[in-house]
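Forwarding these from the shared drive since the link keeps breaking.
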Amino acid sequence: MFLCFNKNIKNRIKLHSFICMYVCIRVTTKVRFPASFGADIRDLIKNLLQVDITKRFGSMKKGVEDIKTHPFFSDTDWIAVFKHQVPYATTPTAVLY
């Protein structure tokens, strides 16, 4: 929903307080990782979810290279990924509806 075009919010103060409330919720929400997650994946996810766009992976000067060169992907062959030569981690055996 685009707040700027919402006809129900006529008052700029209400709009401002709603935006501030939304931003505060986003900034203060903590991500909880399973114990099985290692330091590399935790760091990657934290950098991808960074609220500050100037520090967020994929949005900085190097762009996608920040993500591709992260230690979590150290053993990833990006050329093989591009050429669809990477085997699937699991192959589904049946489709359940």
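-- next protein --
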Amino acid sequence: MAAVAVSGLVLCAATGVSAIETTPSQDEIRAALDRGVEAAKAHLLERSEDLIRHELARTARQLEEEARGEARRRARNLVADALQRVAASADGGETRRD
């Protein structure tokens, strides 16, 4: 593993921060790193939540549109069937009177 010392901080290429050299500002450096990592995690989580919300909203809109289309198709079929029954009933009634 390659390690690089930067201003009292030892960075390991494979694992990130592997050790902090003893300096008067060791706690400050560690706190700054922790804030940076936590801020990055928070940003990533927030961005992921936004993307998921957007995708869910898009999917919901798509499902609603599909449901509306299906409902329209079924309604048209019901009306067409009812009209055919009424027409058949009216034709059947007239032929019976003859």
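The first strand starts at residue 3 and ends at 6. Helices lie at 26-97.

- D.
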